[in-house]
Design goal:
CATH architecture: 3-Layer(aba) Sandwich
CATH superfamily: Alpha/Beta hydrolase fold, catalytic domain
Strand order of the largest sheet: 1-2-4-3-5-6-7-8
Helix content: 40-55%
CATH topology: Rossmann fold
Distance between the termini: 24 Å
Structural class: alpha/beta
Radius of gyration: 19 Å
Family: Belongs to the NDRG family.
Order of helices and strands: EEEHHEHHEHEHHHHHEHEHHH
CATH class: Alpha Beta
Number of strands: 8
Pfam families: Ndr
Largest sheet: 8 strands, mixed
């Protein structure tokens, strides 16, 4: 599979869409509540499993659900060119879906590792044999853990704003102080955006703030946020020539890492890239983009996903001229 490293992409930013247009993701969809060892998981299946084709499996970030996280991307024309070849399974973390009931007092929310453990029984029930995962933030962490635990299930990963590491003591102390002085919504906004972006992208910021504060039960949101804040380090290491596969923990599938160049997750994503097999990993840093690349630059991201999936052998060559030109320019510049 060809590699694509540090390509700078720019795009005019659309609004946080969904309210003003028909939602194509509601067509041919069926919702399921699947019982697992760690509780019930709400998922939405679009289409049917197609032969030996993998299913696209999405997992959203904190403060979002599958609709607010992915509808803008999946409604985009270039992304529909991808999804016509696959069924799509959207996962909502427990208690984060639309109209979710408030979690009862004393409810023990799953850890991030347990959230990953909830996925195999869901895939089995829906007769999904393998997946290409698309995860953002906390969702990217969950899908990475799934790929570590069940490598035969995961054929490829598209990880946006991934952070493999547990919070260090300094981060933990800062988080504790922030939790005492800031609201839950403010803390989650700080997870998604830098202070500069919070001041500049006021329309998107206001839309997302209202969604976080009004559309998801705050009790449920606090539980998911706490679970992510208490995540463990995934301890993935770059393979070393000469060592056998069992000697090192790493991802065995192709990986596309995505981050906006103004995102608070830049350092974490670059660190993740340094831990993965360079022959199977692509790092895409999106220019003029902050913490929500799937919302503000859906066209560029969809084009990168098409190229990635084509590299896995699942799509014919089509409609990739802009990305190929960007990649060619980057290659030419690096050879000068």
């Amino acid at each position: 599979m060809e590699e694509l490293h540090d390509v700078q992409l720019t795009e005019i930013k659309p609004l946080l869409t969904g309210q003003n247009r028909s939602n194509l993701q509601d067509v041919n969809c069926k919702e399921h509540d699947v019982e697992t060892a760690h509780g019930v998981l709400h998922v939405t299946m679009r289409g049917v499993v197609k032969g030996n084709q993998p299913t696209i499996l999405t997992y959203h970030d904190i403060g979002l659900n599958h609709k607010s996280c992915f509808n803008t991307l999946f409604n985009f024309e270039d992304m529909q060119e991808v999804t016509q070849h696959f069924s799509v399974l959207h996962v909502d973390a427990p208690g984060q879906q639309d109209n979710a009931p408030i979690s009862p007092t004393g409810y023990q929310y799953p850890t991030m590792e347990e959230l990953a453990e909830m996925l195999p029984p869901v895939l089995s029930k829906l007769q999904v044999k393998s997946v290409i995962g698309i995860g953002v933030g906390a969702g990217a962490y969950v899908l990475t853990k799934l790929a570590m635990d069940k490598p035969s299930l995961v054929e490829g990963l598209i990880l946006i704003n991934i952070d493999l590491c547990a919070k260090g003591w300094v981060d933990w102390a800062a988080s504790k102080l922030s939790s005492w002085t800031s609201s839950l919504v403010d803390n989650i906004m700080g997870h998604h955006f830098t202070s500069e972006e919070l001041l500049e992208n006021k329309e998107i910021i206001q839309t997302l703030r209202l969604h976080i504060s009004q559309d998801i039960p705050q009790e449920n949101l606090a539980l998911f946020f706490s679970s992510y804040e208490n995540r463990i380090d995934l301890d993935i290491d770059r393979p070393i020539p000469g060592l056998t596969g069992s000697d090192i923990v790493t991802l065995r599938c192709p990986v596309l890492l995505v981050v906006g160049d103004m995102s608070p997750a830049v350092d974490a994503v670059v660190d993740c890239n340094s831990r993965l097999d360079p022959t199977m990993t692509t790092l895409l840093k999106m220019a003029d983009c902050g913490g929500l690349p799937q919302v503000v630059q859906p066209g560029r991201l969809a084009e990168a996903i098409k190229y990635f999936v084509q590299g896995m052998g699942y799509m014919p060559s089509a409609g990739m001229t802009r990305l190929v030109r960007s990649r060619s320019r980057a290659s030419s510049a690096s050879s000068m």
